[in-house]
Amino acid sequence: MRVISFLSVWASGQPPSRWRALWRRVGSVCLFLSLFLAGGLSHGAWTVGAAGIAAQFPGELQGQVVDGPTGTGLAAVRISVVGTGRHLLTDGDGRVHVRGLVPGEVELHLQRFGYEPATLTVNVRNGEVARFRAELTPRAFPAAEIQVRARRDEGMVLDREAVEASGARTAGDLLGGMPGVLVVRRGPGGAQEIRLRGGAPDQVLVLVDGVVLNDPLTGVADLSTVSTEEIERVQVIPGAQAARYGSGALTGVVLVETRGASEAGRLALHGGSMGERGASAGFSYEAARRWFTIGGETRSVRGGFSYPAGEALGGGERWRRNADLAQNGLRLGAGGDLLGGTAALRVRLDDLERGIPGKSFAPSESARQEQQALVASARWSRESSMGHLDGHLHHRRQRARLTDPAPPMGVPFDDSTRLTETGARFGVEGEPGETGRVLVGVDVDGSRRTLESHVLDGDDPVESLTAQLGAHAEVRQVPLPGTPHLRAALRLHRDGATREWAAAHGLTLEWTLGDVLVQLSHRSSFSPPSAGDLFFREGVGIRPNPHLRGERVPHEVELGLDGLWELGAVELHLAGDLYLGDMKDMIVWAPDFRFVWSPRNVDVERQGGELRSEIRHAHSGLRLGGHLSANRTTYRRGGGTPGVQVIYRPRLTGGGTLAWVRGGWHTSLQARYTGERFPVPAAANALPAFWTFDLTARGEMELGGWDVRPLLRIDRLLGQRAPFIHAFPEPGRTFGLELEVRPGERR
Length: 747
Prior knowledge:
It is a single chain. By secondary structure, the chain is mainly β. The protein contains 5 helices and 43 strands. The protein has a 22-stranded antiparallel beta barrel. It has a 6-stranded mixed sheet with strand order 8-9-14-15-12-13. It is globular and about 80 Å long.
């Protein structure tokens, strides 16, 4: 349910029309050029290349890239096939498969942030598969908080090392410091919602092992329900991404991969401010190309803290009550070789109970939330003559309950919601003609969902059958300077609730000019209304709207630059993006002239840019990074005053990180800047901008054959208590301590 109230806020000023026209022309040129090149290749260069190579029976390469000290597979290693302009990335196990190679000696260049680059020569024979195994050596310092630089469409990536070094407890804590990412929480133990590029929380699609985390009732993903103990790798890809990842990705997508057999065993105890305490443990076993893992976590927070009351409430200090949290999780996993391919089965059980303290001017001491979820997923993949085959099944059961027997306003309530969902996806990806110049893939995705809730209109459950059909292609070695790549994606989506079809596309031209990667993209995206938007139960002052249209980003144009330079022991990484992507039919809950609240469709203008930089010095172990995001999101027509910034969309956000690794200790100081926000739909009553500083220190030592890892994390180091949302106070400085123990010999 997109509860973006009519009390939204905005900043005046229309963008010059000539700039908007220029952006649209750039998008049109990109589209025309890409289609022209693709057509030319299919009738000219593609045919000639195929004929010239066919007689030599192209060979293939299969290999794995691993971390030298541990032998663990490395994901997102950039592999360049020298002399061909081809660039590939290893998968989550460090594996890669290259087809359509001209027989002879092939030189591979391997590069990954935090590791020494390597060059490997492999002999490829006619019609045969050559195999290799490469080891990368870490740089002189352990890689703390690595953000892997890969293809630009890979977005920003955090691997397991970065997750552990962050000291974060939840996915929301982890992602809150990433460039361009805004995570909003409603108290220490409350829900955590992600926003990208001026969008709402329900406009970011979150996938955990391919399963949608977004709630079907509200459309919002609560990142506080995903513990970092289960995260192996996480990606944040901003922009309209529905063509590649499915409906709901209006402003971006978050991809979370959970852990496999990555450690023999571990035990951790932690505690901290506001009565926080907890424990986590994990165990894995791997032999004969089969693995099994089990892990779990328990955490509780009392949650009470003092906060300054505003002048309207009489001033002074008050005590925040009913902000406690109890959270438990269990995960199981198994995998191995199956039917000529590899298979993995994962099961997650989550149980959560927390208080809902309400707003500071209307606190509730009795409101509670309970939620239990079971998610099971199975994946199978195989390399065959048809190409890469991939199948995925998932089943999800979830129950949520909201109660308040004595609310400060309104009548008591006890509402329950039950969800049952089963889905499947199958895809195939290959290189027609075996020339290695074109990669083509198709996928089919379907799910059946049953939703029962007391907050929906009517007594019958809401049932929906959703289907998606996607296709993508990549054309390599486009005949232009820098050997650019052309990528295209198209997705058709049938929404089971509205029974309407929608389409999204993605078109990207990417090429390398010296040490700089350049990307020009034109994309579209869509998101159907949530069940809460369509069927919210009518009540006093509330009316549903079953005639809502789905939200759309019809045209998003993005220009990105990404450079990586090595100057002796110093690495310099600079990246930036400019984008323009207006939204049509954004769903806003707002009152009419009779003050009856109901959702409506409005149009929004959206444009902005992001700048990121990072400097690493290998010998000293120092890393300095910074980022700045500017976003203008204003109403255009259908609701609100044109040119006024939408409520709680800060125009400027940013931050920086200073990290130092020395003597087994990873220490980092992170600064975050949150710009001015308006809590009402006018340029008035602005909440002031503020800075926060977080300190993390993690050590590694050996004691009696065990690896011991102490961790200290201090949030809001200087005691800043400014809230992001008015009337949802923050506690100021908090701290957390953790002690983790692992066997000395890792598998």
